Amino acid sequence: GATQAIRIVVAGDAKTGKSSLIITAAAETFPSNVPPVLPPTRLPEDLYQDRVPITIIDTSSSPEKRGRLFEEVTRADAVVLTYACNRPETLDSLSTYWLPQLRKLEVVRVPVIVVGCMLDKRSDQNPIRLEQVMSPIMQQFREIETCIECSALNLIQISEVFYYAQKAVLHPTAPLFDQEQQVLRPRCVRALKRIFILCDHDRDGALSDAELNDFQAMKLHKIYSARIVKCFNVPLQPSEIQGVRMVVQEKLPEGVDERGLTLTGFLFLHALFIEKGRLETTWTVLRKFGYNNEIRLRDDQLPPSVKKYPDQSVELTGEALEFLKKIFFTFDVDCDGALRSAELEDLFSTAPENPWNESPYLEAAEKTALGGLSLDGFLSL
């Protein structure tokens, strides 16, 4: 369901600018006096357009308060880890102490934002490229969503810090994309395949220009000429549709054919959005089609379960039987009168998983001599 509130915990070495960062974000001005540890701080609700309440938890760096800090981290929706831009040793401690500690607490699923504070104190004689410094750390710790440097004193990129933290919670990477393998996760692929099929009205295996326009009811982004065009509740212009197709065709020729955007191209486009940091695009599409944060259909998208008394039985109507028979013969590709393992996988390829691979369904129906599921067995399940 929708996120009601976000809790962000700020941690890091002593004197790396944690409290100044929080006060400046909340008050939009640099504080003259900063207490050692702040009480929970609420950001203004209108600070970001999502208008989700954000509470920031400051933490003490003293060893005797470490238990309290880790307790807060386990309750966090996101963690901001700070280092001081003028003290390289505080950056080193992220990979030698803080990030390994988060893993020990088994909160790897919580997104981490790495923030370099006090950018104004870094010597101009020692310029560094953030990407060059952070790339090895991000390769080692895939839970890091974003790295950013800021200055509370000069009000540089302060609101962006918590914008990225909020974005990582509202549009998380982990359910969609395997950072280790750099591929879409299976459940994400299955959901996007279902959406593709629902939008492919003529069932020709490709989204035509007209079918692409059915995305007018949701946010659609196109990546072209190094910029992103947002279309919300308006039809895509012919040039914009052409732009979408050109991007896919250039990177993946089989993603487009004479009929339009293929399933391969559709999946590639979403992988591209994610790689470019536009996770909200894929999440918007998924949520419009009824998926929750676990990429399962929400309860309000599913028919209510049938309630019956112990002495009652349930029978399929004639209409339901005809529908299920049509499904069976559609997926019985080799026309042998049975659904084999690969055909069953294809049948459930738009579901989060194949439910018939588990008890009580796995052995509930008789199989044919070749291990397939007959029509009678299919209907009985």
TrEMBL record:
Residues 319-354 form the EF-hand domain. SUPFAM superfamilies: EF-hand, P-loop containing nucleoside triphosphate hydrolases. It comes from the Eukaryota. Its main location: mitochondrion. Gene3D superfamilies: EF-hand, P-loop containing nucleotide triphosphate hydrolases. This is Miro domain-containing protein. GO terms for molecular function: calcium ion binding; GTP binding; GTPase activity. SMART domains: RAB, RHO. The keyword Membrane applies. Keywords: Calcium, GTP-binding, Hydrolase, Membrane, Metal-binding, Mitochondrion, Mitochondrion outer membrane, Nucleotide-binding, Repeat, Transmembrane, Transmembrane helix. Belongs to the mitochondrial Rho GTPase family. Residues 3-171 form the Miro domain. One of its GO terms (cellular component) is mitochondrial outer membrane. It is found in: Mitochondrion outer membrane. It holds the Pfam family Ras. It is a single-pass type IV membrane protein.
